[in-house]
Hints:
Layout: H1 2-14, H2 23-45, H3 50-56, H4 58-91, H5 96-129
Amino acid sequence: MDDWLAxxxxxxxxxxxxxxxxxxxxxxxVAACFAMRAGLQDAxxxxxxxxWTILTDRDDRRELLREGWKAVAKIFILGVILDCAYQLIVxxxxxxxxxxxxxxxxxxxxxxxxxxxxxxIAAARRRSEHP
Length: 131
């Protein structure tokens, strides 16, 4: 177990300076852009913050997750492909769990963290402009 965890941390750290490191900036940036666009649309339609609603509203959770997945699926798949290429170049092997973990961290996490706050900021600005 300790060897497995040590390998994961070592491999994750090596991605920063290794080949294809541009994706560590590009993928979260693209995910953030999609999240901002969706957050602004949420504010226009008066929807509640995305991630908080996923956590608290059972009735809408499935639909919100499906909607979010549609937004980040291409970025996630691109992340899987790029990390697969990275692993083949560096390790001559593919570690599927690491592959999915890195793609999730680079595509889904920024989307989840940014969409709700953009919604809140845009809604607050809208309320202050149109009291």
